[in-house]
Every structure is written in structure tokens, then in C-alpha cells.
Amino acid sequence: MHLSLFSSRFPTRPAEPENFTLAGFKQSRLRSAICFLLLLASVSLASAAQLAASSSDVSRLDPAMGVNPTAAANLDWHDVTAWGVEGREWTGLERLRWFDRFPAAAEKTVTSAVWNLSRDSAGMMVRFKTDATSIHVHYKLLKERLAMPHMPATGVSGVDLYARDPSGAWRWVQVTKPAAQEVKAEIIKDLAPGFREYAAYLPLYNGIEFLSIGVPQGSRFEGLAPRTKPIVFYGTSITHGACASRPGMVHTAILGRRFDRPVVNLGFSGNGRMDAAVGDFLTQIDAAVFVIDCLPNMNAAAVREKCVPLVQQLRAAKPDTPIVLVEDRRFTNSWITPAKARHHDENHAALREAYATLQQQGVKQLYYIPGDALYGTDTEGATDASHASDLGFMRQAEVMAPILRRALQR
What we know:
Rossmann fold; single chain; five-stranded parallel β-sheet; 14 strands; Jelly Rolls; five-stranded antiparallel β-sheet; alpha/beta
């Protein structure tokens, strides 16, 4: 083929501009490719986030998994401080916050950890009667953290409602499912007609700034004053309520309903250590019985050092009030963790020694609860090996009930 014909059909590349280089061309193409990939990634991430948000919000698929409905309009609101709550002792002493468990004076005598934990409303319960067909609550929480990794918001920050059935037994009704620090919500509606007694348990691991009960206008409502002679529990995070799904599911609350008595919950997470400073406040309570359940936060040496003096301190002030000593529960995985098993063995032995010493000293109305089966014996009673699940709390109440019955019927 003639060379001129070939050249006309296949023209040569135009002349390059003076500033064009092959390296510059490659960099430009690379920048364009990077920009395109970044744009594609951002679109993909946005789509994935949108998909995750929609799929993670289970309440869209099942409304029962969402928060409580907003409180209705035109309700009559009743401030519970007008008649009082159970589990709030030392009512004649000044408090920094109305719903603190300890009076202000305790800040100067108990440890800072115990003081801060005492600002949780664990164990407090308000009773009232109403014929309302719906019940609402309005409360503000002290802390922004509504839940913990191993404990739901219903237990940490919820208000848990019970009512008496026609036979007089306490039966569960509903719990709030808080999603914000301030809750103004309907707990329950479409209630069966009737004027009945209710009990609302306050949050376990959060404090309360205020609490009001709301009922439809025109409903009959009566606040019930706190009852006297409570069962007083002094203990650890387990007594405090970890890790109950609802405030009414702690063993202290279960036993309060079972014996139909008020309860004082002095559980201090990680800090229930038979302290004499706490004992000073215990001696000021006109208790039906004292339950000392501090071993989960102690070792054998501390038990030997503190148990006998604490009981003597209580007995000097309250000569006839029953005192119950409780061994620590066993970690539900202690069967496979020898160090934990030894710790429990040593703690139990130390408490038995203290109990024997007190009996030799002639201390009366002293009772003892073994700890081996507090959560059951099948390893299924805890959330994280240490803290009870609802099952563990039920089992703990079953173990404690016969001993408490003996103490209360002395």
C-alpha cells in the first residue's frame, strides 16, 4: 500500500501542548479516579447508614419494643412528695435532694463512693389508690446515663408499676422504658374498672429529681403514707439491684411484696463493706429486721475485722431487732474458676466464725443464710457471673424467705 494513502486513513496524533507531560497526564487521571472512588464510598456509606438505622429500629417492626406513649393532655398530676415514699428513712433530717437515700449529714461520715451511690433511688416505692383507667408518670432523672452494658434502661432508670389484685396479692402492671432524662409518659391504659392500690418502684441505678403520678381528670386518687417497721437491707451491687430488668424484680422488692412490708434498700455498688459509718445510720431506723449482705464486696480478712463490731453496734442500739447475716453468693462460673471458688470458701468460713463468736457472746435474735444456692446451683442465675438476673433474684428471694419469716415471727 502506498504510504500516503496509509497516512491519510490513519492520521498522526496532534501535536502536544508545550506544558503537557506524560507524568502530569497520569496524575490528573489518578486524581479523577480517587475523587470518583471517594464519591462512590460516601454514597455507599450513607446508604448503609440509612439501612442500618431503619433495620436497627425494631420498634418500627414491633411497636411494643418502643418507648411508652407520651402522657395524655388534661391530666391531674399528683406530686408524690406530698404523701411520701417508702425506702426513704431519716425523714426529719435535712436532705440535699428529696429522693436521696441518705440525709445530708451522711456526706461527712460515709465514704465518698457510698455517698454518691446513695443518691440513687434504689428501693424507694410509692403507694397510692385510684380508680383511673390509665396511669401516667412525669419524672426527671439525675443522670444522663439511662442504661448500662449489662442492665437495661427499664431497670436502671425505669418506674415499675404493681397493683393489688382482688385477693390482695401484688401483681405486675407495666414499666416505663425511658429514652430521655425527663420522662412524661403513659405507663398503662385500658385498665379494668375499680378503685385499687398501686405501688410504683423507683429507678435502681439513677436518681430522681421529681416524680408525679398522672390520672385522667375526675379520677379518684389517694396517696398512701409510707408504712412503718421496714425490712432493712445493707449490701452491695446485688442489693442495689444489679442486674434486674425492672426495679420491682430485685430480691428486696420481691420479699417486700411477699411479706407485705416496707423495705429500705441500702445497697451500694462495690461499696457494701460493713462500715461503722453506715451502721450509725442503721441504728437510727426502727426496723423489723436488719439483713447484712456485704460479703460480695469483702474478703475473709475484712469479714473477720468488721462483722462482729457491726453486729455489736446494731445490738447496742437495738437490743431486740433481729439481725440476719448472709453469705456471699457464688459466682455462677466459680465451678471453672478455682480462684473464685477459693474466695467464696474463705469468705463463708470467715462469716461462720463471726456468727459462732456472736453466739458465744450471747447475741440473741441472730440468723444466718448460706450463700451456695442463692442463685441456684445450675449456673443460670446471673447476668455476668456476679450479678443476678431476674431468675437469680427470684431464687435469692426463695432462699431468704424462710429465714426472714422466722425472724419476723419471733
